[in-house]
Amino acid sequence: MWNVSFEGSNGIVQISETGDRVSDYSLFDLNPKSGHFEEVGTYFGVNSSFIQLKDIYWIDEVKKTPVDVPPCGFDGRKCYVYKNPALPWIYFTAIVTSVVFILTIIAFWYFKRVSFEAQLKAMNWIIEPDDLFSMEDLGVKCKSLKRDRHKRGSVHHIPLADEENDTENGAAVKTARFKGSIVELKLIQHKTRIDINRLLLMEVKTIKDMQSEYLVRFIGACLDPPCLVNEFCSKGSLQQLLENSQIRLDDMFKYSIIHDIVKGIMYIHNSDLQAHGSLKSTNCLVGSRFVIKISDYGVPSLRCSLHQKYPANCDAYYKSLLWSAPEIIRDPHAPIQGSQKGDVYSFSIILHEIIYRRGLFATNETGVMPKEIFNSIKLGNESRPPFLGDNTLYEIGYLMKRCWQENPADRPDFTSILNTIKKLSKKFDNENLVDNLLQRMEQYTNNLEELVKERTNDYLLEKKKAEELLYRLLPQTVTAELMAGKQVTAESFEAVTIYFSDIVGFTKISAESTPLQIVSLLNDLYTCFDSIIEAFDVYKVETIGDAYMVVSGLPTRNGDLHAREISRMALTILDAVIHFRIRHRPDEQLKIRIGLHSGPCVAGVVGLKMPRYCLFGDTVNVASRMESNGQPLRIHMSPTTKGLLDKFQTFIIKARGQVNLKGKGDMLTYWLLGERDGLQVPFSNDSDIIDNQNKTETLSSDQ
């Protein structure tokens, strides 16, 4: 029976189409308050509807209908948990480990912070001037630094970034020895001392921590006088290397130089500095193994700005700015530390220097002044170094043009530049590079040997000239002792003959002539005398004004020949004077007085600056009196000299008579008239010249 209805004992019975009886149900709920079941709802089977009459009291007074299936299932299997007895310890260990890890991180950060502050406060980079020793004398401390320390405000003005290796401005980098090594000293231009502050400490720590084979190592600094102490590069700057025509740089060697510069700047750009700011060929130094090292980086607080390094309107000022990017040149307030794109532009200018080796902006070739180039760039023109078109590194040209673009955003970074350089240098394999570097070193050594040989020859030539000049000023025996470093002691000579002469009326001639005419007169006369004395065994002592002093018998002793040598020389000089003509007074006869005397004397060197070989003793005084008491165009001599000449029996001598000499009283003196079979005074027979043997003349010794 399906889908039928009929009357049953309990009422109408209805069968559904599926054969099930359709029934109505009532839902009863236990009221927890009254303890009785109450009808809370009715279900009607005919229309499958449920009418709720009252609220149902659920467990734990929950108002909403519970789920069909409990969360843990009807049998509780879904919520079964394995109870591990070690689980609490695992939780404890995890918590402790996490806490320890966090505390370790905090402690590590704190330690690094404390260590960082301790390093700042330690200031172990400060170097005392007394620890620097001069290169000239390793036992002498740097006097220049110690001297400058006491001259506040008068420190040598050597710019921080453009010094010795920056030879175009004439500055020089000082060198010293510090802890057994040669170091480079760079005095800071615009400060009298370094004031320490936190900013400076941070900057110094930054550069001191920078270690690269392509950077010049910072060693320390002196506070007063203010100077930086850096690693010393003995081969100078890249600019000096490029300007040295004796060193040939092939393409591979140029690529090696470029590669070193790029690596050094990349290191700076990846450091806390982020930029160099003053990149130029003078700041690229050549190490002992031909590795290019970048210098003058960091410590911007100690650097003067680009526009303060040199006096304005000087060539060095404009030349120093030509490496700077256009945006920096046009901005008077540009940051001292520069920018990375500015370094790229500076690198392009160095590239041009390396490729062509014609100087900065090829000024050696074009002749354009740095000021003209600077003004052109400042006005906004794209003035760039010219392409000369005679180099083999044409591949670099495109890279160079990219690097000096006017817009900084159009310039590549150094990572891109390094990749380009590596691609261009692929044709040079590593083996050839090493071989070429060894060949370059050998060639450089040969160049140095040739240069040393050339300089040695120049030195020997100049040494010979100096010795010849010294031999003219001092006797050869004395000169030899001085050059040997020996102390020259005074020497006594038993017998010498001294010659004195002066020009008669020299004061009047000087008053009537110009200084230049007097100089010409003395030069002509003494040149004549000097040429004469070379033929005799005599030594010229000195010339003072119009006085001429010669001696024989020293420094080399010659027995009794000294009187004969001086007498023959005096006759020759007198004969030359008689025929001598004054250039500006040709009609006037030049007249001299000559005095001779023989005796003992002492000779020695006097003074350290401009030393003089001087004669001392009474013989010198008497010889001077012989000259001052003589007469024009006559040779006046003492009886001592006359006695020595009589031994030769060849000289013509006439007695003058008694002459009163200052300090000596009356003395019988003589005229030397000539030598038989030799020179004679032309007017020796004149009665006005030959005095009577018994006639006594008293002449003032003050003439």
UniProtKB/TrEMBL annotation:
The keyword NADP does not apply. It is a single-pass type I membrane protein. It is found in: Membrane. CDD domains: CHD. One of its GO terms (molecular function) is guanylate cyclase activity. Gene3D superfamilies: 3.40.50.2300, Nucleotide cyclase (3.30.70.1230), Transferase(Phosphotransferase) domain 1 (1.10.510.10). The keyword Signal applies. The chain crosses the membrane at residues 89-111. Keywords: cGMP biosynthesis, Glycoprotein, GTP-binding, Lyase, Membrane, Nucleotide-binding, Receptor, Signal, Transmembrane, Transmembrane helix. GO terms for cellular component: plasma membrane. Residues 144-428 form the Protein kinase domain. Belongs to the adenylyl cyclase class-4/guanylyl cyclase family. This is Guanylate cyclase. It comes from Rotaria socialis.
